[in-house]
Amino acid sequence: MLFRPNLTVAALSMALASCSPAPIDDPYDDTGELIALSGGDAGPQAACHTCHGLDGGGDGTLVPRIAGMDTGYLVRQLGFYADGQRNHPRMTWLAGRLNTEERLAVSAYYAAMDFPKDKHGGKILPEPSCEIAKVYEIYHEGLPERALSSCASCHGETGLGLGGGNPPLVGQSAAYHAEQLRRWRNGERYGDALNVMHDTASKLRKDEISPLAAYIAYGPEPSRRLEFPVECP
Q1: Do 135 and 223 reside in the same domain of the chain?
Q2: Exposed, middle or buried, 66 (CB in 10 Å: 0-12/13-18/19+)?
Q3: For residue 195, how many other CB atoms are within 10 A of its CB?
Q4: Residue whose C-alpha is closest to residue 170's, from 221, 207, 109
Q5: Worst-scoring range by mean pLDDT, 40-49, 97-106, 146-155, 163-172?
Q6: Contact 32, 106 (CB under 8 A)
Q7: Is residue 2 situated within a structural domain?
């Protein structure tokens, strides 16, 4: 009879355990979509769509398009923001509150979105000029006299990128491209393999950045050479 109380306690414990609710998962961390729309643990003020839009297309100025970008590239950029290799107060704060799984989930969500079909995105085509002819040369051929590699060697002749580590450039605004080139040039942005971007941007002259950004934003096109003036200094 001495063992019956112990059995009773054990049976009661088992009964209570069977009635206990299962652990509740955080609904805001289940999918990349929920993180993008809710901000995850960072809260709704950090929801990605508030800046990048529901379609991931950015704001047409300094907030970039992230729809259709490579998953690995987006994950790396979130890591760079979190550890200070890219500097942006809001993005640094947000990225630092996402764990590895959350960064991967939200990156995969935006990567799965459709890439913009119209690469020009309504942007104005720069008028053919010697200035545009110069940046055409920079983009497609580089400048051997400055040991300046062409943009196309990494980002492709039409700006669609070459591999996951060299992202597409089309679909971003001229303002965004110009800002990033200045940041690379001034050493305010880091994280590129072998410092290729810093080395390239540092060889650009200040007055070349805006026209190059405008050319890239519209969509690089090798056949445009025929539109340029025959004689340029």
Answers
A1: yes
A2: buried
A3: 13
A4: 221
A5: 40-49
A6: yes
A7: no
Return the structure tokens found at 65: 């398009």
The CATH number linked to 93 is: 1.10.760.10
Taking the chain, what is the end-to-end CA distance rounded to the nearest angstrom?
A: 108
Distances (CA, A) of 74 to 33, 83, 147: 15, 14, 30
Q: Are 63 and 91 in contact (CB under 8 A)?
A: no
* Residues 139 and 152 sit within 8 Å (Cβ to Cβ): yes
Match 């400048």 to its residue by tokens: 143
Same structural domain, 94 and 145:
no
3-class SS at 143?
Answer: strand
Domain-located, residue 13: no
pLDDT of residue 120: 53
Domain containing 89 equals 28-111
Do 144 and 74 fall within a single domain?
no
Alpha carbons 71 and 152: distance in angstroms, whole number? 22
Residue 125 tokens read as 């085509």
Are 139 and 208 found together in one domain?
yes
Whether the CB-CB separation of 191 and 85 falls below 8 Å is answered with: yes
pLDDT digits (tens, 9 = 90+) for 199-210: 999 999 999 999
Alpha carbon 86 to chain centroid distance? Answer: 11
Q: Cα separation of 107 and 226, whole Å?
A: 40
- Which amino acid, residue 146? R
Residue 124 lies in a domain: no
